[in-house]
């Protein structure tokens, strides 16, 4: 059985400006308010740095650096999660923590769903992760992550994935919440954010 089954998935995603050492990020997960267990070995995680060619038959093919990590996250109801780590350009590294996101529980897979009143737990988790990890931008949505907010129609890795091309135009309504470092706060519409220390937090009132 795969670690996470079914769908849709609730995605808690965030982006770092390189250089970022994955092992340091994973180690700091122990410092947040919610207990997170990592089930993959350090040797497995090292495979991220080795990467693999996009086209094995092309000696000049771009290298893909991506890894999938199994987590257990101890929210009020314990949940399995998959953490996808992807290098999307020489400057940016994407993390996406995916949870089973249907509203109903999937007892056959021992996966709790996410009730409306439980969304606040994940927004608090997003904030706690920012305070510990200090990423550049993060968000919470069903079947939507931060990579989709770049105005780029290219497969990654690609140098067009940079913060100059980050936009929330026509996509803000898809997110339960978005948290963005103040250095990028001009990316969010005025009057829709709450100042929280070094970052801006946007909460979609429609969700």
How would you characterize this protein structure?
The structure is a single chain. This protein is α+β, with helices and mostly antiparallel strands and 207 residues long. It has one domain (9-203). Helices cover 14% and strands 31% of the residues. It contains four helices and eleven strands, in the order βαβααβββββαββββ. The chain has helices at 22-28, 42-45, 47-50, 119-133; strands spanning 9-17, 36-38, 52-53, 63-64, 66-74, 78-87, 92-100, 137-142, 175-181, 194-196, 199-203. The protein has a nine-stranded antiparallel β-sheet with strand order 2-5-6-7-1-8-9-11-10. Strands 3-4 form a two-stranded antiparallel ribbon. β10 and β11 form a beta hairpin. The longest helix has 15 residues, at 119-133. The radius of gyration is 17 Å and the shape is globular. The two termini are 32 Å apart.
Topology:
Blueprint: E1 9-17, H1 22-28, E2 36-38, H2 42-45, H3 47-50, E3 52-53, E4 63-64, E5 66-74, E6 78-87, E7 92-100, H4 119-133, E8 137-142, E9 175-181, E10 194-196, E11 199-203
Antiparallel strand pairs: 1-7, 1-8, 2-5, 3-4, 5-6, 6-7, 8-9, 9-11, 10-11
- Find the structural class using helix and strand composition: alpha+beta
Number of extended strands = 11
- Separation of the first and last Cα atoms: 32 Å
Tell the overall outline. globular
Low-confidence stretches: none
How many helices in DSSP terms? 4
Order of helices and strands: EHEHHEEEEEHEEEE
Query: What is the CA-based Rg, rounded?
Result: 17 Å
Binned strand content: 25-35%
In spatial order, strands of the major sheet run: 2-5-6-7-1-8-9-11-10
Largest sheet: 9 strands, antiparallel
The helix fraction, in percent, is 10-25%
Mean pLDDT: 91
Number of domains: 1
């Amino acid at each position: 059985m795969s670690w996470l089954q079914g769908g849709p998935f609730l995605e808690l995603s965030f982006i770092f400006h390189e250089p970022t050492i994955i092992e340091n990020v994973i180690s700091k997960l122990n410092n947040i308010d919610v207990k997170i267990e990592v089930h993959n070995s350090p040797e497995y995680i090292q495979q991220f740095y080795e990467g693999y060619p996009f086209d094995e038959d092309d000696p000049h093919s771009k290298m893909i650096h991506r890894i999938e990590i199994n987590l257990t996250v101890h929210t009020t109801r314990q949940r399995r999660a998959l953490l996808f780590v992807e290098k999307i350009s020489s400057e940016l590294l994407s993390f996406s923590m995916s949870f089973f996101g249907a509203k109903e529980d999937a007892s056959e897979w021992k996966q709790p769903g996410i009730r409306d009143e439980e969304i606040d737990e994940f927004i608090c988790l997003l904030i706690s992760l920012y305070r510990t990890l200090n990423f550049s931008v993060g968000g919470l949505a069903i079947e939507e992550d931060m990579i989709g907010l770049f105005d780029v129609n290219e497969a990654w890795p690609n140098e067009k994935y940079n913060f100059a091309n980050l936009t929330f135009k026509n996509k803000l309504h898809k997110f339960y919440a978005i948290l963005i470092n103040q250095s990028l706060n001009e990316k969010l519409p005025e009057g829709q954010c709450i100042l929280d220390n070094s970052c801006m937090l946007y909460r979609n009132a429609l969700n």
